[in-house]
Write a structure and sequence with these properties.
Layout lengths: L14 H19 L3 H14 L4 H14 L2 H5 L9 H13 L3 H14 L9 H4 L3 H4 L2 H12 L8 H20 L4 H13 L3 H14 L3 H13 L3 H14 L4 H13 L3 H14 L6 H13 L2 H13 L5 H10 L14 H11 L12 E4 L5 H10 L4 E4 L19 E4 L2 E4 L6 H10 L7 H7 L8 H9 L8 H9 L1 H17 L11 H11 L4 H16 L4 H19 L7 H9 L6 H19 L5 H14 L4 E2 L20
Parallel strand pairs: 1-2, 1-5
Antiparallel strand pairs: 3-4
């Protein structure tokens, strides 16, 4: 058995995984010395689960087999019904030692299916040159069929390397059995996931020539689609539907391929045909809504997807479609971008390799008009010794709430904002840090994720809005700290407000503490906190239809107050509020029309910024950095040459 595992030295994992595997292996040896082989089998399974390539674990398994009386006897000491991947791999290696190649391959496939990122197939017996001739093609077909349906399409690069030995074996067997259509078809599915699209197309074409029926046709279409040949894929699929119109999922594939190539109008009839044939089909109805959204961009279709998922949780494809159309869309799948002049200048400083490196610099900004306090918070997070000097307020006064409120996050001393709430407890700050994210799959997923904060005290949730924790010390957190600190602050505020949306969730919405607090934050001094509270109310309404009328009305009222202020001064949160109103499609159409008109007016205003304004701001930033604590005039939005549209701004 030892020879089957040669060549693994130096290939094991590192860090904690290696240490865990070494510890489990040492325990297995101790228990074996005591004669309790059944107990030792559990530690061996743990060792392989921690590091499938640890040479000492393979040696210990060989010793285990010898003590048991051979690999066949050793198999009896591992539960055949145990789904644990470590157990599966131990049994696979023992089956290989017995020469039972089909069983060994199926067990490795089951482990890959359970966790495709682990190098289960990196073992000498699976990579031996003689194996393709020893294993029956039907066994490879069955193992691949069991494995590939659980793999992402395409596989991430790291996972491709983990699966590569199995892929190489499949390639050798497919080429040895060129007349096996089923093997070529399922081999194409693995090659496609591995990014080997040319081979995937070649194998699928071979399968289709040998056996021009349903499965080869479906696989050929997938391969052509992955190879960037969508029209050929559509032709193959449509010919197959004409031959056999029973596959509703294939109709969905046709509809979505049309939509993904910019032709949703051609795809919609296919999705509607599938839904009409079976209204409860788990893919058809979500596909109709997704293609309709691709055609007209109406968020009502996405809300309908959320409702479909809520009423039919056994239809996870609705979540897939919803996530697909929410990705990187403001508030649908990511926090909306900050637009303040302070943030724009901050980006220029941080992105300049000469200026952004020294976080101890005493940079001072002179803002032409007061901006949301959270924008200043982002600047000071990057430059703790910095200072922002505001020159004017504007009318109506953004420091004042739009109505009397019982709770406020900020208080002002003159033109300078200070937190009006104490910092959260360290435990609460850590939980928020571990929960907050600038992205999420879709709105219901963000709302559900926010429940992690539901147990925090109200004061902690309010405190974190003005005292955000540092980003986590991981790759994303380090990037945000170095380049986009405002994005992290907005993420913290968003999830703190989602935590508030879950506060005392057993209370009826009207009259509840959570509603009262969110409304205070929504209508308080103009700030990113207002946006976060608005999103939390919209998210609550997406998952609870009884809240929709009230939440939509309140967010619209806040947008109207911001729109009124926009006539006489900049209102940087207005665009975000408009987008949130558009995510309330249950409102009267006039509300959405107004939000779209306002967004158009904001875009026209941005287009009218004089050329070269960005270059001048960059030059001022460099000059200020060179002078240490010099005054950097961070320009507010430049004075446009003219204003048009429904909300033309009045000056003077």
């Amino acid at each position: 058995m030892d020879g089957l595992h040669a060549g693994d030295a130096g290939a094991s994992a590192g860090g904690e995984e290696r240490l865990a595997a070494e510890g489990e292996t040492a325990l297995a040896r101790l228990v074996m010395d005591g004669g309790d082989l059944a107990h030792a089998s559990g530690h061996l399974a743990g060792a392989f689960a921690a590091d499938p390539r640890l040479p000492d674990a393979h040696e210990a398994l060989a010793e285990f087999a010898r003590r048991a009386g051979g690999p066949q006897a050793a198999l009896e000491l591992f539960d055949p019904d145990e789904p644990f991947a470590g157990t599966l791999i131990c049994r696979a290696h023992l089956q290989a030692a017995c020469g039972n190649w089909p069983e060994a391959l199926m067990l490795v496939a089951a482990a890959v299916r359970a966790d495709h990122e682990r190098p289960w197939s990196h073992v000498a017996w699976l990579t031996q040159e003689a194996l393709p001739a020893l294993v029956p093609p039907q066994a490879v077909t069955q193992a691949l069929a069991h494995m590939v349906t659980a793999l992402p399409d395409p596989l991430p690069e790291d996972a491709r390397e983990a699966v590569r030995p199995f892929h190489d074996l499949a390639a050798a067997v497919v080429e040895q059995h060129r007349g096996d259509a089923s093997l070529a078809a399922i081999g194409s599915a693995l090659a496609r996931r591995m990014g080997d699209t040319d081979r995937a197309v070649a194998w699928a074409e071979r399968a289709h020539r040998l056996q021009p029926d349903h499965i080869p046709a479906v696989m050929l279409g997938y391969a052509l689609r992955a190879a960037g040949r969508p029209d050929e894929a559509l032709r193959v699929w449509q010919e197959e539907i004409a031959r056999d119109g029973s596959d509703l999922s294939l109709m969905v594939d046709i509809a979505e391929l049309y939509a993904s190539t910019g032709r949703p109008g051609l795809g919609l009839p296919w999705a509607e045909r599938a839904a009409a044939a079976d209204p409860e089909h788990p893919q058809a109805a979500p596909a109709v809504l997704g293609v309709r959204y691709a055609a007209d961009g109406d968020p009502a279709h996405l809300l309908a997807l959320a409702d479909h998922l809520r009423t039919r949780p056994d239809h996870p494809y609705a979540a897939t479609v919803l996530a697909r159309h929410s990705e990187w869309q403001p508030w649908l799948g990511v926090v909306a971008t900050a637009t303040e002049a302070t943030v724009n200048v901050l980006h220029r400083i941080l992105d300049d390799p000469e200026m952004g490196a020294d976080r101890t610099a005493g940079v001072q900004l002179a803002a032409s008009m007061i901006e949301p306090p959270s924008a200043s918070l982002a600047f000071l997070a990057a430059f703790p010794r910095g200072e922002i000097v505001n020159r004017s307020v504007g009318e109506p006064d953004p420091r004042e709430p739009v109505r009397p409120v019982g709770r406020a996050v900020w208080r002002y001393e003159g033109l300078t904002a200070h937190p009006a709430v104490p910092a959260p407890s360290p435990e609460a700050a850590r939980l928020v840090r571990d929960t907050a994210s600038a992205t999420w799959p879709h709105i219901p997923a963000a709302y559900d994720h926010g429940v992690r904060l539901s147990g925090l005290a109200l004061d902690d949730l309010l405190g974190v809005l003005a005292h955000p924790p540092e980003p986590p010390d991981d790759q994303q957190g380090r990037f945000l700290r170095a380049h986009r600190p405002e994005l992290w602050i907005r993420a913290v505020q968003t999830f703190a407000c989602l935590g508030l949306a879950h506060h005392r969730a057993d209370e009826p919405w009207v009259g509840s503490v959570r509603r009262s607090v969110l409304l205070d934050l929504l209508d308080g001094p103009e700030d990113w906190v207002s946006e976060a509270a608005a999103f939390a109310m919209v998210a609550t309404a997406w998952v609870d239809p009884s809240v929709r009328e009230d939440a939509g009305l309140r967010v619209t009222e806040r947008m109207l107050a911001a729109a009124t202020a926009y006539r006489t001064r900049e209102v940087t949160v207005l665009g975000s509020l408009c987008r949130l109103v558009l995510l309330c499609p249950w409102l009267e159409p006039a509300c959405g029309d107004l939000a779209r008109d306002l967004l158009a007016a904001i875009r026209r205003s941005a287009d009218e910024v004089p050329a070269g304004a960005g270059d001048r701001a960059r030059e001022m930033a460099r000059a200020a950095e060179a002078r240490g604590r010099s005054r950097l005039p961070a320009p507010g939005p430049a004075e446009p040459q003219r204003r048009r549209g429904l909300f033309r701004r009045r000056r003077g």
